[in-house]
Amino acid sequence: MPILQVEHIRKSFGQTKVLDDISFSMEPGDTLSIIGSSGSGKTTLLRCLNFLEKPDAGIIRVRDEVLLDASQQPKKVNNRETRLKRLHFGLVFQSFNLFPQYTALQNVTLAEELLAHETPEWKADKAKVQSRIREHGEELLNEVGLSNRMNNYPHQLSGGQCQRVAIARALALRPDILCFDEPTSALDPELTGEVLRSIRKLAERNTTMIIVTHEMNFARDVSNSVIFMDQGCICEQGDPREVFDHPKQDRTRQFLARYHGEN
Amino acid sequence: MSFAQQFPVVFNALNVGFLQTLKLFCVTLLGALPLGLLLACGEISRSRILRSVIKVLVWIIRGSPLMIQLLIIYYGPGLLASSISAEAAAASPFLKMLQGFKWSGGEDGRFAAAAVAFIINYACYFCEIFRGGIQGIPAGQEEAGLVLGMTGRQIFFRVKLLQMVKAILPPISNEIITLVKDTSLARIISLQEVIWAGQAFLKGSQGISGAIWPLFFTGVYYLAANGLLTVGFAKLEKKLGYFR
């Protein structure tokens, strides 16, 4: 059973079509890379999955549950419902977006703690829940190699460390699908490596992931399927080795040629 | 009367005057800070009418001298009342109400008028500072909160508020320090604040006349108050310095 099914997503900003009939599906444990030039709609697609943008049309299903059906718009939007639907997805931003006034550990645990406020368990034994959440946060930071940086504030960390905190933060609520929006575009090549290593580790553990990236070699290595987007459409899609080494579409070839030229 | 004899008399009178200055200062802050936040919320609201109304208000208040605003607010109601004819008032309940409004006599009325003028004036300045503070927080902060399933309230109180406070602290402390000195403008409607109290000894009061030093001495009060405020704000800024 697919973990994610995206069907016929469309999105326009005013007159500009940003997403035009996007459909794809993922199996649990898949790592999907989305490549394409700037403005091809990759980021907007991730933002639609994370409910930061509302598609004009289309259906998003997770584990056969319909999370969003754009044709059912008149229905009153229940805030709490939307909020909980978001939790199927995690999102790691290009610019980290860590909360500057919280330590690395607090960044990771804040959302989990706020969600715990709504449970009866919190009222019964606050300290126990807090220590459990704290342990979970420490475990996550440990996994991204930051056990010695838990109590540092974001401004005391390098860009690569910040992004790894952001990855731990996105994992804290145990999302079904973790999305990355150009996670290394704001980093210099030296720091890129450490972030990519963390993502690779997640892929080895069969975390279901969608990665929007310009790191072509990484995309080819780490993912088991790749989508090339162009002008809001899926231009080519398939096994990374096929798409990268034997692209069928002219547009894909053109795009990849520029990258091969660089390397 | 020698200086040594004058000093305690003047000191007492200036203290009484400065108490009034402080009262105006505190009442203005208590009114203008929340009103400014309210105006700022209106200014970033979705209602175009509300936004325009606030923009015009801010333009008028920031664009004209506080001294004129004080004069209009204090003398305006009385002038308006006398210009409304008895027939007009009888015909319209609204005009009758306008005619009925006036500041109470004496120091209380002057203080109330000054407080209203100062609160409106400072609220407009605070409004712009708050708006800048709210809009200055990167959209990514809200988005990060949203994808982590936080409610709008949680995002405001847990994520944005402290960042906003930190960002607006320097301009707000600037305004507050200016306010200490601006209270002296209430002298124009004879509010008995510290400048008024100092000036009294120039004209003659409690057996002292022609003395200009009490007026100069009032400067010490402003310096002392602003010295305290400067130290306080520096401490606060340092406290919030743990993040960037």
Structure description:
- The complex is a heterodimer of chains A (263) and B (244).
- Chain A has one domain (4-72, 85-262): P-loop containing nucleotide triphosphate hydrolases (Rossmann fold, 3-Layer(aba) Sandwich), CATH 3.40.50.300.
- Chain A contains 10 helices and 10 strands.
- Chain A has helices at 42-49, 79-86, 104-116, 120-124, 126-143, 159-171, 189-204, 216-222, 240-245, 250-262; strands at 4-13, 16-26, 31-35, 57-62, 65-69, 89-92, 177-181, 209-212, 225-230, 233-238.
- Chain A has a 6-stranded mixed beta sheet with strand order 6-7-8-3-9-10, sandwiched between helices.
- In chain A, helix 3 runs parallel beside helix 6 (159-171), helix 5 crosses helix 6 (159-171) and helix 6 runs parallel beside helix 7 (189-204).
- The mean pLDDT of chain A is 90.
- With 244 residues, chain B is mainly α.
- Chain B has one domain (3-242): MetI-like (MetI-like fold).
- In chain B, helix 1 packs antiparallel against helix 9 (194-203) and helix 9 runs antiparallel to helix 10.
- The longest helix of chain B is centred in the N-terminal third of the chain and has 41 residues, at 3-43.
- Chain A binds chain B through residues 50-52, 79, 83-84, 86-87, 89-91, 93, 95, 97-102, 110-111, 114-115, 153-155, 169-170, 172-173, and chain B through 138, 140-141, 143-151, 154, 158-159, 162-163, 166, 242-244.
Give a topology summary:
The complex is a heterodimer of chains A (263) and B (244).
Chain A: E1 4-13, E2 16-26, E3 31-35, H1 42-49, E4 57-62, E5 65-69, H2 79-86, E6 89-92, H3 104-116, H4 120-124, H5 126-143, H6 159-171, E7 177-181, H7 189-204, E8 209-212, H8 216-222, E9 225-230, E10 233-238, H9 240-245, H10 250-262
Parallel strand pairs in A: 3-8, 3-9, 6-7, 7-8
Antiparallel strand pairs in A: 1-2, 1-4, 4-5, 9-10
Helix pairs in contact in A: 3-5, 3-6, 5-6, 6-7
Chain B: H1 3-43, H2 48-63, H3 66-83, H4 86-91, H5 93-100, H6 106-135, H7 139-147, H8 152-182, H9 194-203, H10 213-239
